[in-house]
Design goal:
The chain is an alpha+beta fold. It has helices spanning about 5-10, 30-45, 50-65, 105-110, 155-160, 165-190, 200-210, 215, 235-260, 270-280, 310-315, 325-335, and strands at about 15-20, 75-80, 80-90, 95-100, 120-125, 130-135, 140-145, 195-200, 220, 270, 285-290, 295-300, 305, 320-325, 340-345, 355-360. It folds into three domains: about 5-110; about 120-220, Nucleotidyltransferase, domain 5; about 250-360, Ribosomal protein L30/S12 (60s Ribosomal Protein L30, Chain: A), CATH 3.30.1330.30. A hairpin with a 6-residue loop joins strand 12 and strand 13 (about 305).
């Protein structure tokens, strides 16, 4: 997962509230279940003396957002009194996670969140399309109504002699071109990583063909959905989720292969000591996050001065002013240095639950 989307967190001031919970809307009592979860969140935050204004902001953001379709999770991160991150997750976490801490907790987003900060969903037919931009938890939809007409053959003598069909075909092509132009503009402006296309088979195929190469290579045609009123979007949601999961597995595969290839060459490290050393040097290309557990690291006033233990930090000339959770400090420092983040699965078990693929070979030891 590219870390650019988390960059605002680096410069934000805590304390941070990081919340992850099941936000599924796949049952008739989904609203009641959401109410119950938010009551639990509120109670937990009140017990940790979180400001009432912050609690109300979290509650309002969750309730005010467009509800997801089907199985989904929700991530909300607050810095001070400001909501700095609010996203839907592909899959809900198995249990609600709530942390009030000095640093934000990002691991659940890396594990369950969208790989990309923005994507488009285009529902197309022969008359136009509804185009929805999903970006950083925000959803906005606009309609493109093509000017091409007619898009259906009339039952007339002209139809019998075949005179109407060329005009219908050209009208449809005109409408598809208008949709393609708007989709291209939105994809360029939003830097959307994927463009999902649903709707009539011919229309979605023609739209994919009408897109310029830079956008067409991001296009994924979906089998479900459509523009008709009352269309069930659960299948579309499932298809989108499966596509993101497939890409996540590919990302993990790539990281695992690069990590394995880098072992013994100086291009991969593992364990708290070596990974913190690489992060200090800005050498990490991809941080691989496994099961870190409750491990801690120490840091000075600046997070960049970090080490696995106080003695190492002192040897580096730093003062161990803070003890931080490793699963909060290391991902945030990776974000600060522009490294990608990968939550690994059973394919990779780095020492201490943390590993890294490096940009260049490290010559120094962890304690140097």
């Amino acid at each position: 997962m590219h870390s650019d989307r988390f960059r605002p967190l680096v410069d934000s001031k805590g304390p941070f509230v990081s919340i992850y919970f099941d936000d599924s809307h796949d049952t008739q009592d989904a609203s009641a279940q959401l109410d119950a979860r938010l009551r639990d969140v509120r109670k937990h935050l009140e017990e940790q003396s979180v400001d009432a204004a912050v609690i109300e902001a979290i509650d309002g953001a969750v309730r005010g957002a467009h509800p997801p379709v089907g199985r989904s999770g929700r991530a909300v991160v607050v810095a001070g009194t400001d909501i700095v991150l609010d996203e839907h997750l592909i899959r809900p976490p198995t249990t609600t996670v709530i942390r009030v801490s000095e640093l934000p907790y990002l691991v659940p987003i890396v594990e369950h969140g969208l790989l990309h900060a923005a994507y488009l969903l285009v529902v197309v037919d022969r008359t136009g399309a509804d185009v929805t931009l999903h970006r950083a938890g925000l959803v906005s939809t606009q309609t493109v109504e093509g000017e091409g007409y007619p898009v259906h053959k009339a039952k007339s003598a002209e139809h019998e002699f075949g005179g109407a069909q060329p005009r219908v075909d050209e009208a449809i092509r005109k409408n598809i071109r208008e949709v393609a132009d708007r989709v291209t503009q939105l994809a360029d402006e939003s830097a959307a990583a994927l463009v999902f296309i649903e709707g009539e088979v011919n229309a979605r195929t023609e739209l994919a063909s009408a897109l310029p190469e830079r956008v067409a290579e991001k296009a994924v045609e979906l089998q479900g959905g459509g523009r008709a009123a009352g269309t069930d979007q659960s299948e579309v949601h499932h298809e989108i989720g499966q596509e993101f999961l497939k890409r996540r597995l590919t990302t993990i595969d790539d990281a695992a292969q690069r990590f394995a290839a880098g072992r013994g060459t100086g291009l991969a490290v593992e364990g708290l000591a070596d990974v913190t050393a690489a992060l200090r040097d800005g050498a990490v290309d991809t941080l691989i996050i496994g099961d870190i557990g409750d491990a801690t690291v120490v840091a000075g006033s600046d997070l960049a001065m970090i080490a696995a233990d106080a003695d190492t930090l002192s040897d580096l000339g730093g003062a161990p002013e803070r003890t931080l959770r490793a699963d909060e400090a290391l991902p945030l420092l990776a974000v600060a240095t522009g490294a990608a983040l990968v939550r690994t699965d059973e394919r990779l078990s780095p020492a201490d639950g943390i590993g890294a693929v490096l940009r260049y070979a490290e010559n120094s030891s962890a304690s140097s």
